Amino acid sequence: MISESDLEIVNALQINPRAEWSRVADALGLSGPTVARRWHALSDQGQAWITPAPGQRYLSAGWSAFIHISSTPRDSEALIERLCSEPAFGTVSLVTGAHDLFVDCFASSHDELMDIVTGAFPGLPGITHREVVFVTKLYRQASEWRSGTLEPARARLVSAEPLREQPAFAPDRIDAALLDELTKDGRASWAELGAACGVSPQTARRRVERFLATGYIALRCDTSTSAQQGLREVTLVLNVPAQHIDDVGRYFAALGNCRLSAQVLGAQNLLVTLWVRNYLEVQAYERELSERAPGSTVISRQAVVRTFKRLGHVLDESGCSRSVVPLSLWRNDS
């Protein structure tokens, strides 16, 4: 089990993933070397890690889809292994409900996304059915979720100053390379990032901070199952009347336990992921949905049985990160 102090360090890095160790230490009443040592121990054990994630404006520059997959039981292990090895598939989870697997997919262009959803599946073993829905609007991303371990006053001490908003731009090969390196170690120094990508530390910092400031990406701190303190992941797949969808999307996004709220294009039009302590909590959200948006229907309810890959990190049975397949948020060779 992760200690309370370690949970506080994790929460601090959820708030500000690249905060200086001295700043985290001041907020937690520890020394900088102690905080750094504990984080490196968590990271080395695969208990916690920091990685790039799609930001609130990711869809302005990239493309995303959710894929529901059914498969034959005898081929499930081989199928999961193949899905986890594909850089375009960020997260792969075994779920309850009508489908066996839930996958999210990322691409740098519409054409690339079409190539992935049409070309990636014929060679995969055991698939009996797949359903693809395109993400059209984000109300909340998992990078915005916080565990709440830190008291509000201490959380404010860690919070980063907002970056000056940057205009839209077209990410290039160097930007994509920096994201690959950050997937391996989201707290790599500017010098390490620059050396790996053939640019100066100053250039590495400027480009990463530009990415963050535009909202194309965010940095996210994820943890193993043991650090999630009994939380269970549930996804509601909804069809909401068009006049209510923004209100409902924002309602779920404002919940402290909401990991994802996204408008999608398919038989459903809204997908929401919540972390709950008791599955019965879901009924309260469905009652609220019926009051806020009469005519809404719940197409499916999915509880995660096991996550095999989370945003590029391949996980073991306890949810610890054991290897990394850098997530191709952008594939740009220019």
The portion of residues forming beta strands comes to 25-35%
- Shape from CA axes? globular
End-to-end gap: 46 Å
Q: Which structural class fits the helix and strand makeup?
A: alpha+beta
The strand line-up of the biggest sheet is: 2-4-3-10-7-9-8-5
| Percent in helix | 25-40%
Main β-sheet, in a few words? 8 strands, antiparallel, barrel
Helix count, DSSP H or I runs of 4 or more residues = 11
Structure notes:
This protein is an alpha+beta fold. The protein contains eleven helices and twelve strands. It has an eight-stranded antiparallel barrel with strand order 2-4-3-10-7-9-8-5, surrounded by four helices. Strands 1-6 form a two-stranded antiparallel ribbon. Strand 8 (258-265) and strand 9 form a beta hairpin. Helix 2 crosses helix 3 (32-44), helix 7 (173-184) crosses helix 8 (190-197) and helix 8 crosses helix 9. The longest helix is centred in the middle third of the chain and has 14 residues, at 201-214. The chain starts with a helix and ends in a 10-residue tail after the last strand.
Write a brief caption for the model:
By secondary structure, this protein is α+β, with helices and mostly antiparallel strands. The protein is built from eleven helices and twelve strands. The chain has helices spanning 4-15, 21-28, 32-44, 76-85, 110-119, 152-158, 173-184, 190-197, 201-214, 245-253, 281-292; strands spanning 48-54, 63-71, 89-95, 101-107, 127-140, 217-223, 232-239, 258-265, 270-276, 297-310, 313-315, 321-324.
Features:
alpha+beta; 334 residues; 12 strands; 34% helix; globular
